[in-house]
Amino acid sequence: MRPTPTPEAAARPDHDALLLGSGSPLEAATLGALDHLQQVLTLQPAGTDRFRADSEPGRFGRIFGGQLVAQALTAAAATVAELAPHSIHAMFLRPGDSAAPLDIAVDRTRDGRTMSARQVVIRQAGRVLVTAMVSFDTNPECSEAVTVEGSVTAPEALPLLQHWAQQAPRELAGSASTWVDTPPPLEMRIADAPIFLGGTQAGGARSLWMRLPRPIDGGPGAHAAMLAYASDYLLVDTAFRAHPEPVGYRTHRGLTLDHTIWLHRPVRFDQWHRYTQQIVAAAGHRAVVNGTIIDAAGRHVASTAQEVLVRPIAELPEQGDTA
User: Fold this and answer.
1) Which region is the signal sequence (predicted)?
2) pLDDT digit string, tens, across residues 105-126
């Protein structure tokens, strides 16, 4: 196995390491992935409050849960005028095939003077993959608490996720190369290697920085959907990293059972956001991971919670969505 570099050494430019402005194949692939995600989030009308959509290229052997969360949010928002989304609660019931189309149905559960609620069901070939509740509010202007942080490493000083993929142990090289060859539509920077790329278990919270690799059009709703998409990354890995028992991707599988995101204020997701994740409970085969998303100005823009199934591969059920 190649030696693991320090964050400072890993962040130095080498071949395709730099992303933005490098003109590298990695940059081109990441920008292409964002183009594709925008297409996937452009839902096609298929009747009253009904939509059809495609998926990103397969990266996990099934549809990424964050994509389904973002599509549910987008579909619900298409049936609500003027109000802004403030929460989405999604339950994953079955894995999906990224090569097959999705059918999305929205039920107008409630419309009030200042709040609305929508139930969304995403099906594939008649089978329910996800059910979600999405809530909307007028989101009035108010004073905002600013999170005061101590010394925080600037995102550009940290390695890209793809650095750790390039440094992954030989036995993980096949799956690790996917993060370089078919990268997510995000720039993600993190100080140490995730467990799925050869990192080691450790307690406590872990932070990563993330942003879109270029500005996007579409207003606050588009940025909220992109943040919802990105909010699903590395939560399962955090459950592995801080699990009280020895677990790893060679012996265990992580499945997302449900995912919640609360949006506290409008987001500009083409700017840096720090995502701090920590495991808050582990019992039996289940763990709960919480996340806090802070923008570059120190404002708390979103919170997340996810229940994860961490189970030996031999005991794996059919339910859930890997992430």
Assistant:
1) none
2) 999 999 998 999 999 999 999 9
Question: What span, in angstroms and rounded, lies between the C-alpha atoms of 2 and 79?
Answer: 52
Closest alpha carbon to 131 in 319, 322, 305, 323: 319
Q: What is the mean pLDDT of residues 253-263?
A: 93
Query: Phi and psi for 192 in degrees, rounded to 5?
Result: -135, 165
Give the model's pLDDT for residue 2.
36
Q: pLDDT higher for 211 or 252? A: 211
Q: Which residues pair with 50 in a beta bridge?
A: 105
As a whole number of angstroms, the distance between CA 228 and CA 311 comes to 26
Question: Measured between alpha carbons, how far is 293 from 286 in angstroms, rounded to an integer?
Answer: 23
Q: Residue 144: how many CB atoms within 10 A of its CB?
A: 13
pLDDT digits (tens, 9 = 90+) for 166-181: 999 988 888 889 899 9
Residue bearing the bigger pLDDT, 56 or 23: 56
CA distance 274 to 149: 11
